[in-house]
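## retry 2 of 3
previous attempt timed out at serialization; input unchanged, resubmitting
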Amino acid sequence: MKNENILRSIKLTEARKRAAKRSFVDLDTLTAAEDILAKIKAGGDSAIKQFAVDFGESGKVYDQTDLLYALKNLNSGIKNLLERSMSRISAFAQAQRSAFSDVLVETNGAKLSHRLFPVERVGCYVPGGRYPLPSSLLMTALSAKAAGVEDIVICCPRPSDIILAAAALCGANCVIGLGGVQAVAAMSFGYNGVKSRDVITGPGNRWVSAAKQLLNGSIRMDLPAGPTELVVIADRFADIEFVAADLIAQAEHDTDAWPVLIAVKDFDLDKLNRVLSIQLSELSTSQTAREALTNGFCVLVNDLAEAAELTNDLAPEHLSVQVANAPDCAGLFTNYGTIFIGSMAAEALGDYGIGPNHVLPTGGAARRYGALSVLNFLRVQTRIDATDVDEQMLADASALAIIEGLEGHASAINIRRIERGLNG
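## retry succeeded, writing output
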């Protein structure tokens, strides 16, 4: 059988160019999304409903009655599966929450403190174009719950009964049958009686990503989480069956997925392509996976140091290290969403609820963002209690105000200094 060149090999210089040129959302998508948002701002709910019709979505708001009905009729085996996954995700999220504490500092005669307080209203986007993704609902909603958020709304383009039931299990208020730009707009501006959100979270395609980018600031967005990415670093000791399976697992998400192999010298790329061909032939999602794999690439490097340098430039969403003594090499890598170490650390375990969140930065954003966590749903509220601030602190504050030309600021401080002296 002729060997298929499914995963194309490129030079290291070309891979570095690709890393430098990567953009999170292409300009054409941003321009089109901006036009959709303008029409929605002008037309309100009716415009959102029209876009829903155009894209084959219901635009319906599924209320508590709908969610509880779906839960009541859910297969008991699936319900138990969701509950087991929830327990793992919640345990990790609650451990995160307990790691973040309030602060109290006493200095200069004042008490300075902060507290971590949840936002009030959260919107969770759950992809549902090709397949319903209840795992994404669990990841976002349960992290919000662990932070203490009470008002949670889910948007999904075509919510299945499993999505509705999962929303009920997570304590969501409702599910809205919207996707893409119109879903982000509905959560940002409000829709059909559902109030606008304080924070919007969740992964999505380039249209969701574009809308989140355009509306970020007026609404707090979680992180750039677009089409999925996986970089696998493998040497000659790696199990090629595992490497192929992991690359395919990410590639089957979407034709825009980005599967990349960084092969350390002496890795057998020809064998990998043979194994990819065999595994794809047995896969129902092979058409999507194959297209994504052809958009991905393989780079041959001389050693792990070179692999780490390229990986840190790529800053991938998922990083799988499948080399000899992988745990000892993990410190070489600094830019990634989640790193997977060890032969049993299939990236799919991260997707399906082993614990840490699977909503991760893409498009190189792992240089600036980390994984979704309870922090995305918390506000740091600071407080100053001051009845006896020391003279040096007051004098310094007044002096800085004068330097900046803000005489009123200085006066507000000095009047207190005078009053204290009179009463002193």
